[in-house]
Structures are given as C-alpha cells and as structure tokens.
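B., you asked whether I could sanity-check this one before it goes into the benchmark set. Here's the sequence:
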Amino acid sequence: MPLACGEMDPIEKLFESSEEQLLPVQGKVTGTIPPCIKGTFLRVGPGKFDLDSGYTMNHYFDGYALLSKYSISGGPSPSVSFESKFLNTDAYNKGTAAGKSMCNEFGSKSEQDMGKNYFQRMYRIASLIMVRKTQEQLKIMSRKQVYGKN
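And here's what the prediction gave me:
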C-alpha cells in the first residue's frame, strides 16, 4: 500500500535516534497486570544514529547501544516505569566527543581510516597476523627448550 503524502515509512522509525531517560518515568496502566508479574525487563539495542555534528550512521547495527529498563509490578495497584541510558563504551565516548565515528563499524567506516586505500588496510591486517603468528612460534620454541615437548 503506498504511503500518503507526509507519512513516514515504518522502516525509517528504526533509524530514529533516542534520548537517554535517566529518571524513571511512570507509565499509565489501563487494565490489570496479574499479581505474579513483578520484575525488570532489560533490552539493549541501537539508540543513537545521528550525532550533534550532523554525522549519521550508515547501518542499523552501527547505532550506539541504548540500555532500556522496564520495571513492572502487578497486583491491585499495578505500575510500569521506564528508564534508558547509553552504554558507556569507548566507541560511544570517542564518537560523541569527535562528532563522527572513530571506530570502523558494521556499515560505517571511521573517519580516521578514510585516507587509507584497500592495500594499506590489508597490509596493516596482515602485519598484525604476522606478529601474532611470531608470538605463537616463540611460545612454542620456548616450551620446547624448557620442557622438551610441543
């Protein structure tokens, strides 16, 4: 079914940035919640796609993580509250401070790697693999010298 003029495509709602809600917000309960329902529901998902500088993430998996908490209590006076907070990760801290992605994400390249061509990136990856292989070989050689076995 085609969208009417001014209507938002439902998939676009997935890419809207959320805001933190640090203080609990009480929801209005209509109906009843059974007394046996009492607890906390946690959800982690992408929450920030747009940075203040105008930079936008390119993929759904690239959004900075938002932890959402729903506290539910059933019974004669049921209540539901909601809180949310961005996870304090290195990628989030560096990206929000710089106003752009500073780490390569699933679908968004970091700004610091943009100047490198394909071969330079492959060389860097290969050199890291060679260092790890050399470290493994040295460990094996030292075990042979000390214990006389592999």
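One thing to flag: The beta strands are 21-26, 38-48, 64-73, 79-86. Otherwise nothing jumped out at me.
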